[in-house]
Amino acid sequence: MVLSALLSDQLRFAVGPSDGVGLACAHRATATGGQVDLEAVIRADERLTAVKLSRESRETSARTGRALLRVATSAFGDLGLREYARQVADGRTPGNHAVVLGVLSACLDVPCPEAVAGELFAFSASWVAAAVRLSVTDHSTGQAVLHNVRPDMTEAALSALDKDVPDIVSCTPLLDVMAMRHEESELRLFAS
After folding, report:
1. Residue 82 has pLDDT above 90, yes or no
2. What is the C-alpha to C-alpha distance for residues 38 and 59, in angstroms, rounded to an integer?
3. What was the pLDDT predicted at 79?
């Protein structure tokens, strides 16, 4: 199935090694009680931005990360996020969604493996939902795609856990070129 293969490649070569690793790094940089190693979090944030080659991908990640940060600080109070939120608001760090989620998950005592797995599943479900909205597939086939990629999702999540900031990478040249072309399209269906 072509959609399963494409999503599998995204998980194994892009999202897992980039967002998954960035999330894990940010999670590890946040100690129990919300003590954040701000320098380590910012390094992960900057590296994650650097490997997102398309402008739309970078902007979407930062926009959703900032939104998550606003909601989290509003809903949960400080939790140790205040200084990181200030750095993001002042433009000193991008505030990528995966990095914000890593810090937030650690502050809320969500174990790192579950946080990374949740992020990869959320990406996959969103990806399949987009394929359904574009009429590339139907709901039943979409569910089959999610079922088919479970082993790759698991492998990507487990692989991300022990990696460090220099290991944040992404290698999907064809998809990156397609995303860059989409940026220049007159009519666009999605923001990313």
Report:
1. no
2. 22
3. 76
Which are the contacts of 91, defined by CB distance < 8 A and separation ≥ 6?
A: none
Q: Is 33 exposed, middle or buried (0-12, 13-18, 19+ CB in 10 A)?
A: exposed
User: CA of 132: how far to CAs of 17, 139, 142, 175, in Å?
Assistant: 26, 6, 7, 19
Nearby residues of 176 by Cβ (< 8 Å), 6 or more positions away: 53, 54, 170
Cα–Cα distance, 124 to 45 (Å, whole number): 22
Of 163, 48, 31, whose CA–CA distance to 105 is shortest?
A: 31
User: ∠ CA 10-150-115 to the nearest 5 degrees?
Assistant: 80
| pTM assigned to the model | 0.90
Q: Which residue has the tokens 């490649």?
A: 9
The first and second tokens of residue 88, run together, are 């993001």
Place of tokens 């082993």: 151
Residue 91 has φ and ψ, to the nearest 5°, of 80, 15
